[in-house]
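Loading example: each entry is read as two labelled lines plus one structure line.
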Amino acid sequence: MKRNILTVVVGAVLIVIFALLLFVFQVRQSEVAVVTTFGKPTAHPYTEPGAYFKWPWPIQKVYKFDQRVQNFEDKFSENLTADNNNLLTSVYVGWKISDAKSFFPKFAGGSVPAAQRMLESMLRSAKSAVVGRHTLAEFVNADPKELQFDEIENEIEQSVQAQLQTNSCGIELEFLGFKKIGLPEGVTQSVFARMTSERQVLISRAQYEGEAEAQKIKSAADRQAAEVVNNAVADATRIRGEGEAEAAKVLPVFQQNPELANFLLRIDALQQTLNQRSTLIFDERTPPFDLFTGIPTSAPSQSH
Amino acid sequence: MERNIQKNGLVNLVAAVVIFIATFVLTSYVRSLAGQSASIFLGLAALVAFASWFQMRLEENERLEKLELDELARAKGGSALFDAKESEVFPARRAREQFEKFFVPGFAVLLLLLEAGGAWLLWRWIAKATTVIAPDRAMPALSLFAIFALLLFLFGRFSVTMARLENHRLLRPSASFILLGAYICFATALGIAGVQAEFPKADLYVAKGLCALLGLMAAELLVALLLEIYRPRVKGKISRPIYDSRFAGLLGQPESLFTTAAQTIDYQFGFNVSETWFFQLVKKNLIVLLLAQFAVLIFSTCVVFVDAGEQAVLERFGKPVVGGVLTPGAHLKLPWPADRVYQYRTEQIQTFDVGYAPDAQSENAGTILWSVGHAKEDNFLVGNREPVTIKDENADTNDTLKAPPVSLITVSIPVQFQINDVMAWAYNNTDPANLLQDLATRAVVHYLAGVDLNDVMSQARLEAAQTLRDQIQAAADAHRLGVKILFVGLQDIHPPVKVAGDYEKVVGAEQTKLAKILDARADAIRTNALAGALAFTTTNIASATRQRLEVQALARAALFTNQIPAFAAAPSVYRQRAYFQTFAAATANSRKYILLVTNTDDVVIFDLEDKIREDLLNLNVPSSPNNQSP
């Protein structure tokens, strides 16, 4: 008997749970629900969280939508800027369902992917138009005054917002921003080539600046060395002159016998002249070879 | 009666083949994933039905053979016929034995391969499949699958009942498979109905379930094959076909759970385990046990455990409970589905990366170089304040001239954050983590677009991290994400790998420049030092000369003073003496030619040219000591 009661209680609990699942639906804080009765939406969507009654399927059907901000990123697509540069951009977008009743019938039972597809096509169109109105320097510029990054984002956002308001899809654009900007592969290679060329310029500059600087240093050193040596030579000349002057002080001594002094100077000069390797040709009159003239010649000579 | 069983087997075979072909064609037309899976089951059912029907025929032939031989034996008594070999006398029995010995295990292995391979291929195909059921084809497919389910159910139920009542073991495999096929067709119809009722993934989920079921059947068959090796053979006990899936039988007849389990255990152990008290107790209270287990499951949802570092949001009928942020620990709540809890890692520091995707292989490298890729890096556009004028410096390539006035850079920026407002994190955005990453990436793109390449790589680098952190925090606050940005690290910022080598070469060139300047300075020092030394030498020589001049002048004066008396005493002799002394000394080493011929007209020619090459006649031969004159 006890076992039967337990079985009945547990069975009853299960039945209650299944009944709740069939007749009650919950709307979360983050959700909004649209209930259809035989396919026709009820007057007001359920925007407040809580538990609500419904008739089981197929009489009533509940469509729940997330009313939080949903975000997606569009494709990294290529557009032409005002100064004919190809620019790749990717934009992230935050949007939310602002009017579930309008949203529900427009996207095949409230299909969020379908809504995102529509938003993406709107976004791509707006992005192409706005990118074409701006130069590349307004997207990327080291000068903050020239950069119009925020303004471009605002232009795209306003353009998409305007299209959404025109279509009244029950969607509201919350925010929009560039996630990626880049260049096509071919242009990227050109930028790499230019960056390499810039580095080559810097390499050449460093190389030749180094050589020039080295040459300057060397020539300055040479000049400085020459100055030092020249000064030294001048000093030496001066010193030698002082020596000459000092030596000249004894000349009056030689004036006591100028004949002897001159004779001594001459033989000194003769000695110094013949000091080097030299060839001398004398005749018999040159002393001491004049002695040869006083010596009798040999027999054959005599006979001659 | 035996004839009827064989007919039942044939009917099962025909039904399985026809419905297999029909489902295959139908699912190709409807593009239902569940339908494709169901057709695989029905194909397997056809194979099993064929094997069991063939085995029935062999047993029937054996039975007829035995009857005929019994008849002959009774008519003729002992005969030479019975002296022959057994294989010659009982060919049908021999054929049946050979079939059970070789074909049945082989067929079971084939079935295992088909089931396992089918499950694996089906799972891979389902994961990649993008097909969806066309709305206009859903209703006809739904109806046809319902009809197939009904037909298979009728055939299967009849066969199962026949097999159970008359204990026909060979009818059971095909009956179980066909009944299982009926339920599978019904599940497929439900999946298609789910798609029609705006549950687009219902078909996919049914397909995945069927795929898992196929895998389980393969596992069961593998276990059965392994157990068959160790099963004790009891003489006279008829063996069960290995391809008879107990799992299929259980699914086809859930009410026979205990019968199937008991048969399995008894068959495997060789005695009646199912008659023990424990088995009987479980059998009697099964419903109560299942209900109690379900009740425990429901009540287990009344307790929630929040782990350390986490917070949870408690919702009651979808509405957040006031003060319903649950901190780490155990908490009570109403059972599911009234109360639901959503847990978030709040205290835990979470990280994502901007600009790169870590690469496990290159992360193990001990050295990180600009010129070697160390992660999957993105290129960011960056401003170029003072670009080198290409026209002036390098105007030889057209491509270079066309390059836009921007540069590229790669950055690796890890961002660490913490959830500080779990309600904001949970309820303001569907995917807050992804949004935060978008905001951080946008901040980096924006920042780099407005700075100079060289600046951001050098002096602006320090302030860049702080600026980015502030910007990301501001963006997160503006979008009410409920996070605190803890750290933004500019851990790696460098030119793209393709041009990084050229940047390194510039550094090399700068070093070479410095080396040249230092070399020149070294040369200058040497030159100046030598010049100083030369100057010192020159002045010293001059000083020595001065000193020599002075001293010599004094010495000569002294000498002259002493020579004057000698000269005065004998002027001509002194002069001659002095002359000859000087002459002898001065001409000692000179070559001398003395012309002694006078008053002649001879012309004497001297060749005073220096000889370029010495000859032997010029050699001075040292005189031998022996040749010296005494």
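Chain B touches chain A through 135 residues (CB under 8 Å).
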